[in-house]
């Protein structure tokens, strides 16, 4: 499978980044929207991505180069109409997963790809939790989902190799094809209700930047520093189903994990401790461990206040 990344807005989805590419909006210092997306791609071993951009052709290549986060990059410049996107997908000669760079999400991409592999439909779309205010994705969402639904089309979809979207006669907007495919029985839906929002509205952009002010994206999910004082440190960790943290230890930090949601286990040198919602697990300094999520897991890590006290023994993903 290869990836196609739609880097700029079109029509109702115009950039709110001062005319620059949406892909380069900084979620936090040194970490942009495209960095978040490429981290997710590398983690599921998708090594090739085409970036479709309507911005000046030198902007993204100059900033990103031909490889970033372990993903090989190539570039297409077009107006991002339905015809442009369908043509690029057809040229890629593989199953394709398409991302709208105007959205930011904690999607478990591995789970979506597995579902697509087992699906009999040629197209699958991502359905996310509807944010607080309307967005440019509302029109297609109303056409596919119940008008009162709490879900919204999430700006990510997969297309089977050999399925040519150009057979559908449409206007400029790509998403107009999805209701037609649903009516023909050619559309499947992957639902997930973790964080999702869009930068195509100022409110959405503000919510995304607020979300990331204390959030660090990881190959396995994320961590948020909730509180740090001279006496203690509190973090929120999200580990996606089928993922695990690095195998590591802390020289000084004494920590207790409270499982807020999910199931899995913590692997130590000499034992394995299984957990479910409501459990607590104590980890002492110098105890090597990795946290493995059997289902999407959120936990609170309460510890002594040593923020940068991690020695990694083994990483399970090619990038961080």
| Uncertain spans | none
Mean pLDDT: 90
Shape: globular
* Tally of separate domains: 2
CATH fold field value of the largest domain:
Spore Coat Polysaccharide Biosynthesis Protein SpsA, Chain A
* CATH homologous superfamily annotation of the largest domain: Spore Coat Polysaccharide Biosynthesis Protein SpsA, Chain A
The number of helices is 7
- Amount of helix: 10-25%
Query: Which CATH-level-2 architecture of the largest domain?
Result: Alpha-Beta Complex
Oligomeric state of the chains? single chain
- Beta-strand share of residues: 35-45%
How many strands in all? 23
**Using only CA atoms, what is the Rg?**
21 Å
How would you sum up this structure, described in words?
There is one protein chain. The protein has 320 residues and is of the alpha+beta class. The protein folds into 2 domains: 2-211, Spore Coat Polysaccharide Biosynthesis Protein SpsA, Chain A, CATH 3.90.550; 215-314, Sandwich (Jelly Rolls), CATH 2.60.120.10. Helices cover 19% and strands 36% of the residues. The chain has 7 helices and 23 strands. The strands form 6 sheets. It has an 8-stranded mixed sheet, sandwiched between helices. Strands 13-14-15-22-17-20 form a 6-stranded antiparallel sheet, with no helix packed on it. The longest helix is centred in the N-terminal third of the chain and has 11 residues, at 33-43. The protein is globular, with a radius of gyration of 21 Å.
């Amino acid at each position: 499978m290869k990836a196609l990344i739609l880097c700029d807005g079109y029509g109702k989805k115009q950039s709110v980044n001062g005319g620059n590419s949406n892909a380069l909006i900084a979620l936090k210092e040194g970490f942009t929207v495209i960095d978040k997306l490429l981290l997710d791609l590398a983690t599921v071993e998708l090594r090739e991505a085409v970036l479709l951009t309507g911005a000046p052709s030198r902007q993204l290549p100059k900033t990103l180069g031909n490889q970033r986060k372990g993903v090989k990059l190539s570039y297409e410049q077009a107006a991002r109409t339905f015809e442009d996107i369908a043509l690029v997908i057809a040229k890629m000669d593989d199953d394709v997963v398409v991302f709208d760079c105007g959205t930011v999400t904690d999607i478990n991409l591995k789970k979506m790809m597995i579902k697509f592999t087992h699906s009999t439909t040629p197209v699958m779309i991502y359905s996310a939790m509807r944010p607080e205010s309307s967005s440019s994705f509302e029109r297609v969402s109303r056409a596919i989902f119940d008008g009162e639904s709490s879900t919204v089309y999430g700006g990510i979809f997969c297309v089977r190799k050999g399925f040519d979207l150009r057979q559908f006669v449409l206007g400029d907007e790509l998403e107009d094809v999805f209701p037609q495919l649903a009516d023909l029985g050619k559309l499947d839906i992957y639902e997930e209700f973790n964080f999702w929002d869009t930068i195509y509205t100022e409110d959405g952009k503000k919510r995304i930047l607020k979300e990331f002010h204390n959030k660090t994206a990881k190959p396995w999910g994320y961590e948020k520093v909730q509180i740090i004082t001279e006496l203690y440190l509190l973090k929120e960790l999200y580990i996606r189903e089928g993922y695990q943290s690095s195998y590591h230890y802390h020289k000084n930090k004494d920590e207790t994990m409270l499982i807020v949601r999910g199931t899995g286990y913590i692997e130590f040198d000499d034992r394995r401790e299984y957990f479910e919602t409501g459990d607590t697990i104590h980890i002492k300094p110098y105890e090597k461990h990795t946290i493995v999520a059997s289902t999407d897991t959120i936990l609170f890590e309460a510890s002594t206040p040593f923020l940068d006290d991690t020695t990694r023994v083994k990483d399970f993903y090619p990038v961080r």
